[in-house]
Amino acid sequence: MTSAPDVRVQAGHFQYRGNRLAYTSFGEGQRWVVLMPGLLLPVTMQEPLARHLAQQGNHLITLDPLGHGRSEHPYDMTRYSVNDFAHEVVALLDHLDIDEAVIGGTSLGANITLEVAAIAPRRVRGMVLEMPVLENGLVASAMTFGPLLVALHFFGRELSWVSAGLRKIPRRLVPFWGNVTLDVMRQPPTVSGAVLQGLFFGHVAPHRDVRRTFTQPALVIGHHRDPVHPFSDAGMLAGELPNARLCEASHILELRFNPERLSGEIAGFVNDCWTPRVHGARTRRRTA
């Protein structure tokens, strides 16, 4: 993909707890937005949205959590948890000298965003929560990722030749979304297994009693027909957060392949977050 002429793009990295974390900056200015990917996906999945928001005058930072994308991939499962990922976001804000930002992400990225709001609420200007995985999605998540964890844990070394072979394919020969998909399989299987193992043994999101205390504006995006990201979780979360908007996507890939409507919703929400705040206002609406 090529850069729009009005969007400045710059890659960077920083050290956190002895490991290298990678990020990319889109645009300029002080209207900061941080985006994170879904589980095991590279944050390049957020690049089209980042470019769109940057064109609206925002300064986007996309972050690969540890074990994802261009960040380092330690084999130690104890390095991977939603809480650790949230502290990495705070470390990114410190590294870039950002006081507060709109924080957001997809699936795991949405859960990390909630955790950032729990550990550093004053750093969160607003939250974009696409497909959060909460209580209603836990059983389906275990059924989906449990067998994958077993395969990666016990057969990771045997599968490593597949990832090594995929890394030899020149990225320029593969379409953008093909590279996003292949990047999941390009990273060492044992690392992916360690990420899953670490997440399985930690909490997935702040408790609902904690979530109810979050006063930041929030845009919650959900869709139907996906047991891992059930719409009931999105609706429940929008009901818990005192300043939330609930937006229903038509399907799981709408923001990726038909992004105009949802990108417009997100851009409008980010703009609202960076307008002067009206204290005491409670906004709750559902958009279709």
> What gap, in angstroms, lies between the N and C termini?
30 Å
SS content category? alpha/beta
- Based on CA atoms alone, the radius of gyration comes out at 18 Å
Order of helices and strands: EEEHEHEHEHHHHEHEHHE
| Poorly predicted tracts of residues | 279-288
For the record, what CATH class applies? Alpha Beta
What does this structure look like?
The chain has helices at residues 47-55, 82-95, 108-119, 138-167, 176-186, 189-200, 208-211, 231-240, 254-257, 260-273; strands at 9-16, 19-26, 32-36, 59-63, 101-106, 124-130, 218-222, 244-248, 285-287. By secondary structure, it is α/β, with parallel strands linked by helices. Helix content is 42%, strand content 18%. It has a single domain (9-137, 203-278), classed as 3-Layer(aba) Sandwich (Rossmann fold), CATH 3.40.50.1820. Strands 1-2-4-3-5-6-7-8-9 form a 9-stranded mixed beta sheet, with helices on both faces. Helix 4 (138-167) packs across helix 5 (176-186) and helix 4 (138-167) packs antiparallel against helix 6 (189-200). The model is unreliable at 279-288 (pLDDT under 50).
Topology, pairings included?
Elements: E1 9-16, E2 19-26, E3 32-36, H1 47-55, E4 59-63, H2 82-95, E5 101-106, H3 108-119, E6 124-130, H4 138-167, H5 176-186, H6 189-200, H7 208-211, E7 218-222, H8 231-240, E8 244-248, H9 254-257, H10 260-273, E9 285-287
Parallel strand pairs: 3-4, 3-5, 5-6, 6-7, 7-8, 8-9
Antiparallel strand pairs: 1-2, 2-4
Helix pairs in contact: 2-3, 4-5, 4-6
Give a brief outline of the structure.
It is built from ten helices and nine strands. The chain has 288 residues and is an alpha/beta fold.
